[in-house]
Amino acid sequence: MGNTNSCTLSEDDLTTFSSSTVFSVDEVKSLWVHFKGIAGSDVDHISRTQFQEVMLFRDTAILDRIFRVFD
Q: Which of 8, 28, 30, 50 has its CA 20 to 30 A from that of 16?
């Protein structure tokens, strides 16, 4: 999952995301690969259930708040 060579973002997207965040291009690639590992290769979103499983949270109001912030 840490293989940044499988990043499917365009160079323009990588540059845009890197310049508008605190993450380097390599970090954006790594985060994208990790995201795609959770969401699946054909999906561009993570469901609340997937988010809960990855974050190891119980089903609580705080989980809903955190999910909404990231969503």
A: 50
The answer to whether residues 36 and 11 touch, using CB atoms and an 8 Å cutoff, is no
Alpha carbons 52 and 67: distance in angstroms, whole number = 8
* CB-based contact 15:25 (threshold 8 Å): yes
- What predicted TM-score, i.e. pTM, was given to this entire model? 0.69
Token couple for 9 = 């973002």
DSSP designation for 20: T
Nearby residues of 18 by Cβ (< 8 Å), 6 or more positions away: 24, 25, 27, 28
Distance of CA 34 to the CA centre of its chain: 6
